[in-house]
C-alpha cells in the first residue's frame, strides 16, 4: 500500500499528520458539537480531554477558551468563568489571538450573568488586557 500515511518517515522529517493526535481530534469534535448547539456533549468531551497534558500552551488556551464558551451556553456561568480565567492566564502574556477572540465571545455569552462574582472577575481581567 503506497499511501502517504503508510510511508516510512524519511530522513528524520515528520510526516504530514504526525502531530495529529486522538486528543486533538476529540477536542476539535467538541468544538463542532459546541457550534452545533450540543453544548452538554461538548462540555463532556472538553472536560475529559483537557485533563491530559498533551496540548501545547497555545492549543490548551484555545481549547479551554472554547470549553468556557460551551459551559456558558450549557447554563454553567460560574464554571464558564473559571475555565475562561484559566484560558486567559495561558493566553494573555503571549497574546494568543485565537484564544483571546474566543474569550471575547465567552464574555459576550456571559453578559446576562455579569453580576456573578466569577463572571465579573473574568470580564474585569479580560478588559484590563485590552487596555494594556
Describe the overall structure.
This protein is mostly helical and 132 residues long. Helices cover 65% and strands 0% of the residues.
The amount of helix comes to 55-70%
**What characterizes the major β-sheet?**
none
N-to-C order of helices and strands: HHHHHH
Q: What's the total helix number?
A: 6
**Unreliable runs:** 1-8
Shape: globular
- Secondary-structure-derived class: mainly alpha
- Rg, rounded, reads 17 Å
Strand content: under 5%
Q: How many β-strand runs?
A: 0
State the separation between the terminal residues, measured CA to CA: 55 Å
Overall mean pLDDT stands at 89
Walk me through the topology:
Blueprint lengths: L21 H14 L3 H11 L7 H17 L3 H16 L4 H13 L7 H15 L1
Helix pairs in contact: 1-2, 1-3, 2-3, 3-4, 3-5, 4-5, 4-6
Amino acid at each position: 500500500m503506497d499511501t502517504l500515511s503508510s510511508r516510512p518517515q524519511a530522513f528524520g522529517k515528520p510526516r504530514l499528520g504526525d502531530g495529529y493526535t486522538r486528543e486533538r481530534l476529540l477536542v476539535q469534535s467538541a468544538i463542532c458539537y459546541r457550534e452545533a448547539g450540543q453544548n452538554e456533549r461538548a462540555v463532556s468531551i472538553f472536560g475529559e480531554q483537557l485533563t491530559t497534558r498533551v496540548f501545547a500552551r497555545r492549543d490548551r488556551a484555545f481549547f479551554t477558551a472554547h470549553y468556557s464558551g460551551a459551559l456558558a451556553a450549557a447554563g454553567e456561568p460560574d464554571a464558564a468563568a473559571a475555565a475562561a480565567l484559566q484560558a486567559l492566564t495561558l493566553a494573555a502574556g503571549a497574546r494568543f489571538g485565537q484564544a483571546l477572540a474566543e474569550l471575547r465571545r465567552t464574555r459576550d455569552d456571559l453578559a446576562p450573568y455579569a453580576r456573578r462574582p466569577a463572571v465579573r472577575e473574568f470580564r474585569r481581567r479580560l478588559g484590563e488586557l485590552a487596555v494594556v
